[in-house]
Amino acid sequence: MKYYVNTHDKMYRVTTDDFSNKDTCRWVHLIDPTEEEIRSLSQKYKVPESILSSVADPGEVARSDGRYSATYDLFILRYPVEVAEGLYETRPLAMINTEASVITVKYRDDGAFSGFLENKGHRLIEDESFPKEKILVDLAYHICKSYIELTKNINARIEELEQDMARSTKSETIRQLISLSRSLIRFSMATENNEYVLHDLFHLAPLNSSPSRNQLLNDLKVESTQARVMVKEASVTVEKLSDLYSSLVGNNLNDVMKTLTSITILLTVPTIIGGYWGMNISLPFSDEPYAFWWLLGLTLAVIVLMYFYLKKRDYL
């Protein structure tokens, strides 16, 4: 468990000690909290333990709760994270707004907010007079930006696959397309559900009373919409790319089959001629001293004629 306070240099400062009374905009950040930490915070901030542990379920959906509670407001957003090269998934982050502090909880130490916690991540609010709820807005803005950045990475990978697709028929390409498609499906569902939570977030009284509320709402909506649209466009691109790849693989297979069939036809010519002149009956040229060379020349002539015929028909 870590404690963060907002200092006058507009940065979040971390300390492992509890807050003093003079600190403002207090923020408690939990990563994979223990039962003791959950019990302690629940008693101190009057938040049910079930709320603090709700994001322990990796399938927890984005939602908001507690708007009519006198002690807390709960907002769960799903954030993106890269779990392997070319494979992404989303995980829940619980943001709990209490009267005294903001509490955030996640159950994976995946480094998704490491840049944000080191004051290198995306931030929207720079107004020091803004209430502690600025942390919620900053986190939501950072999550939207993360979707945009990871979707850009996916688009870059899609462009690489497009360049390799014409000459590649390996199963590895199919595997990568499946991974990208699965990641984008997760992104699409998460960004869509996150928008409803962001809408509820701006109904918090401190945000509504802020003079910059409308600008904040507009900026956050723009980033959220951009993230959702980019994910949708990338999803459509991957879907079309998969169809195109399937068509290319089928076309390449047809070309291979045409070539093999044509080669089989050419190799059948000497077999047929040899079969006829191999019979134990009287045949033309059978008494000639150079019968073998005559038949060999006839075979080669027929093969050459068949080759040019198949070439003209685009079978070779």
Give the N-terminus to C-terminus distance in angstroms: 69 Å
> How do the strands line up in the largest sheet?
2-1-3-7-6-5-4
Percent of residues in beta strands? 5-15%
Could you tell me the CATH topology label of the largest domain.
Answer: Beta Polymerase, domain 2
Rg, please? Answer: 34 Å
Poorly predicted segments: 6-11, 19-23
In the CATH hierarchy, what is the class of the largest domain?
A: Alpha Beta
The ordered string of helix (H) and strand (E) elements is EEEHHEEEEHHHHHH
What can be said about the biggest beta sheet? 7 strands, mixed
CATH superfamily of the largest domain: CorA soluble domain-like
Report the count of strand segments.
7
Mean pLDDT over the full residue set: 80
Domain tally: 2
Structural class: alpha+beta
- Helical fraction equals 40-55%
CATH-defined architecture of the largest domain: 2-Layer Sandwich
Please work out how many helical segments DSSP would assign.
Answer: 8
Overall form: rod-shaped
Subcellular location: Membrane
InterPro entries: CorA-like, CorA_cytoplasmic_dom, CorA_TM1_TM2, MgTranspt_CorA/ZnTranspt_ZntB
Transmembrane segments: 260-279, 291-310
Keywords: Coiled coil, Membrane, Transmembrane, Transmembrane helix
